[in-house]
Amino acid sequence: MITSFDDLLPLLPLLIATATAVIAMVTVGIRRNYLLTAAIVIIGLILTSFVAAVMMPYTNQQITPLLIVDQYSLFFVVVCCIAATFVAILSFPYFFSLDDEREEYYLMLTVAVIGAIVMVSSNHFISALLGLETLSMSLYGMVAYPLHSKESAKYPLEASVKYLVLSGVATGFIVFGMSLIYAQTGSLAFSDLTSDAAQMNSLGENYTVVALLMIVAGMAFKLSLAPFHVWTPDVYEGSPLPATTFLATVGKAAMFVVLLRFVTISNALEFESVVTVFSLIAVASILAGNLLALLQDNIKRILAYSSIAHMGYLLIAIIAGQGTISNEAITYYLLAYVIMTLGAFAITSVVSSSEKEFDSIMDYTGLFWRNPWLSASFIAMLLSLAGIPLTVGFIGKFYIFMSGVESGLWGLLIALVIGSGIGLYYYLRIVYRMLLPVEEGLKYRIAGIESITAYGVISILVFLLLLFGIYPAPLMSLIESVSSVI
Amino acid sequence: MILAVLISVLFVGGVLAWLSENLDPSFPKVVALTTMLISVAIMLTLLGESDSEWVASLNAQWIPRFGISFHLAADGLSTLLILLTGFLGVIAIGAAWDEINDRSGFFYFNLLWTLAGVVGVFTALDLFLFFFFWEVMLIPMYFMIAIWGHENKNYAAMKFFIFTQVTGMLMLISILMLAYFHYIQFGWLSFDYFDLLNVSTSGTVSMWMMLGFFAAFATKLPSMPFHSWLPDAHSQAPTAGSVILAGVLLKTGAYGLIRFAVPLFPEASMQFAPVAMTLAVLSILYCAKVAFAQTDIKRLIAYTSVSHMGFVMLGIYAWNEQALQGAVMTMLAHGLSAAALFMLAGGLQHRIHTRDMTHMGGFWAKVPRMSFAVLFFSIAALGMPGLGNFVGEFLALLGAFQASIPLTVAAAFGLIFASVYSLWVIQKVFHGEYRNSDFDDSHLSDLSRREMVYVASMMFGLVWMGMYPQSFLDMSEATIQGLLTATESITSMAQN
Fold this sequence. Notes:
The structure holds two protein chains of two kinds.
Chain A: H1 5-8, H2 12-30, H3 34-55, E1 61-63, E2 67-69, H4 71-94, H5 104-120, H6 125-143, H7 156-185, H8 193-198, H9 205-222, H10 231-238, H11 241-266, H12 272-293, H13 299-319, H14 326-350, H15 367-370, H16 372-386, H17 392-407, H18 410-435, H19 452-470, H20 473-483
Antiparallel strand pairs in A: 1-2
Helix pairs in contact in A: 2-3, 2-5, 3-4, 4-5, 4-11, 4-14, 5-6, 5-11, 6-7, 6-11, 7-9, 7-10, 9-12, 10-13, 11-13, 11-14, 12-13, 12-18, 13-14, 13-17, 13-18, 14-16, 14-17, 14-19, 14-20, 16-18, 16-19, 17-19
Chain B: H1 2-20, H2 27-47, E1 55-63, E2 68-74, H3 76-99, H4 104-123, H5 127-136, H6 138-148, H7 153-186, H8 193-196, H9 203-220, H10 229-236, H11 239-264, H12 266-292, H13 297-318, H14 321-352, H15 363-366, H16 368-381, H17 388-403, H18 405-430, H19 449-467, H20 470-486, H21 488-495
Antiparallel strand pairs in B: 1-2
Helix pairs in contact in B: 1-2, 1-4, 2-3, 2-4, 3-4, 3-11, 3-14, 3-20, 4-5, 4-6, 4-11, 5-7, 6-7, 7-9, 7-10, 9-11, 9-12, 10-13, 11-12, 11-13, 11-14, 12-13, 12-18, 12-21, 13-14, 13-17, 13-18, 14-16, 14-17, 14-19, 14-20, 16-18, 16-19, 17-18, 17-19
């Protein structure tokens, strides 16, 4: 129970984020001003991440049965808030010339961040579900945001409805699984299921396995793991770019943290069939993601399929759960994934606007000679996604390999090697496009407005990408300490 | 420290070369040449130190979480290969001097970064660091082929990258397994070469780990059946790219086998040796045969490269002193002769814009100096006594004879095939009636004075190696002796 002010203190990041949403809403009600709303939200999010970062070394507390505020959750609060800040900054030029009301977009972004904060702090089914739905509900709105715009670049309605319907079904699966587990354990808090399944009056192990698989299927949908991935490319492509970026980074990271906590606390890997299912999902995601990406000419779709593959890589570390470094591997790789995905989308985003998105790889022909800096950043992001040294993606992959070797998951590691090999092809295809000579007569143009801050975001991401790739030691020790609490 | 300085000079020089393009398009090559000459000067200081031990050692913590350190050092073998890298670096800049006028800043950036990666590979004594440099040298090479390559550059660059990267990842798994075994046996994680040498491995696990290394190195070397990227990469790469590829990059594979694959897994390697030697012989004979069927002059030289590198692998897996000395000697001599041939072929292509030998003929009358140079290096490549390649291949065969007589006999046929295809090229392109019906020969001029200097210096190197190989053998001897002593107990068991 919350009885005193001290109990509230650990919730400070959540409270600040909520206050930001309220202030932004009231401000919009008083006076519509695009810049002001954006500024409030950005400042609020930076403040949230700052407070969370300051609290991180000291806080480790369960607040009500619903929320746990420990180093790990605070670490991901920081990651999610900074990523959301970057998305907000990138959204500003993107939606600048939208012929509709533009301010509410930032409201939904903030509410989605609140959902993400709740998710990363949950070790209870209710809070996990509340957080998940808060995040998803706001995302439906963000995906469909340019709906009333006469010249919207993509198909936001199609994407939003697709996402809404399928996501609803997935939530249904999760809730069903939760209720089965509740019937078994009588508790909605994450708990050790192996001991419950072994008890005399329990409903038996098979029952628990079915419940677990329901939850896994629902979560796999949200993480777009194969074979629950079919929505991903369409939703990624149809959404406005900043919404895609948010969905692909914060949405995935928060969900993965819930999965990690749930699997760790419930000892789900003790059940052999769960491990089998996880392994099949991982291999299917790696192969399907990478193979289908080969056929795409659209950057958003390529990144959608590549994110499916990356989630498969991450699942390898989950399966390696008994090992000592698998939690660190997951944390490092998630962070790497957020940085490089955010970076890749940011580059597509700065040249696009809500009326015109440059998302075909043809649009990037010769970019290296027209705008070397932007193109070099893009190459860095793509090489990082491919896992080439000097980048954070390589260290992330190194971690995954290490956790796989530690647990002796040879089959999965071979899938990882094959998947990465195929992956090289489509990443290099984009790189090669950019290296081609500029076509004569084509003028370099961007949609929307030039924004220095957006370039700033890209610079920061490239800096982090290289820093964590070349000198990862400080980040590793931070992650080592935060991961130990799981 | 000196090695760290050397690598940073190359990295920084590359960046400077790129930036200097903004001032004047002719600056990058000057900057690159200056950087390269400074690097060679630094490399030469390594010579003064004792050959028997590790010199210029630098060991700093890098990623303490995994026991990874920034450990660089050079011994006689590394020093020889670094010197080869430096020498061919200068040659490569020379080869690019007139050829690359388009976006030269970025070109020299990539050239210097590749060389920095190669020097790193030759000196890294931490396996993580080694892998790091192993991959770092790929990316700039990819750019070189993909931007300045010829008609089919995308395919060639992609194939090169994917082949090396995928097998590189197999090596990464092996490295991690080895580090993990070290953790189990000693209680702490380490990627240091000397720590990992103490890990005792045996049985099938050891064999799989060894195969991970072997796949990466055999791809780079290249050996059958991993060689198919090489002809494409070579024929599409710009001349300087081919020079670096043939002269230096292939040697990293051989170096890896000598330094890592065999010493880390002596038992598995000895079991595997018959297979590896058979692959080597197949490479020698098959690629010599395929070379004979080529009409593209650069593809032909590429296949002969695979064939000659077969002798290196044969020598390494014979694992005795003569054989290893022969392998090292072949690496050096082939570095010069193949680089020279690629440079001449590239020069020819630059002049007449075709690589198709069916269009060529009777060039001796038109370009006598170039023809003589090609003749000289072809003869060197086919193993004429008195030149470096002969010493290397002869020693390799001599050593291999002690390990397996039938395979050595078969490999020796490679020398005959080499004479056949080499002389065939000479006859086809340079002798007979002059033909210029299929191309524009208005730019077909003989070697310029600058080119003469490069060619002459490589000729001098080959003659030196052929006439007084002892100066090179002395440098690598201590390393080879050390490796043989370390693995002695196991290899003698395997041979009895």
